[in-house]
Amino acid sequence: MFWDKYNKICKERNIKPRKLAVELDISPATVTRWINGSVPKMETVKKLSEMLQVPVVYFFNEDEELDNVLKIVKARRNVQKIVELCDELNDSQIDTLFMCIAQMKIKKIEEECEKRKEQILLDYNAEL
């Protein structure tokens, strides 16, 4: 977990974790989210790694954790791109976009229901 690594390196450097965060204009609420398992934005991790003189990857002790962070960063970039694209659309185009998204959600729900139905039938037949 990010907080554990951050807290550990701060203790090794004789630095109070919350104090360092405040120095970097990171709110106490954000630090609390880290304690509860949240992972900071990559730009924040970079600042912390520079201040603590450790590589960015130090904060992510497992490959799975690093993969999750990379997925979050990629998702944030994708959301930003989508917002930028939507800014260029007129109302009619936005309505069409929402209809397409709704249809995709419906299709996904239908597929999930079909998979569940198949699994129920397999389980039922296995009991016979």
Task: Write a concise synopsis of the structure shown.
The chain is mainly alpha-helical and 128 residues long. The protein has helices at 2-12, 17-23, 28-35, 42-52, 63-87, 91-127.
Topology readout:
Blueprint: H1 2-12, H2 17-23, H3 28-35, H4 42-52, H5 63-87, H6 91-127
Plain-language structure description:
There is one protein chain. It contains six helices and no strands. It is mainly alpha-helical.
**Strands, count:** 0
The major beta sheet can be summarized as: none
Number of helices: 6
Structural class call reads mainly alpha
Overall average residue pLDDT: 85
Shape: flat
- Rg calc: 22 Å
Which keywords apply here?
flat; 77% helix; mainly alpha; 6 helices; 128 residues
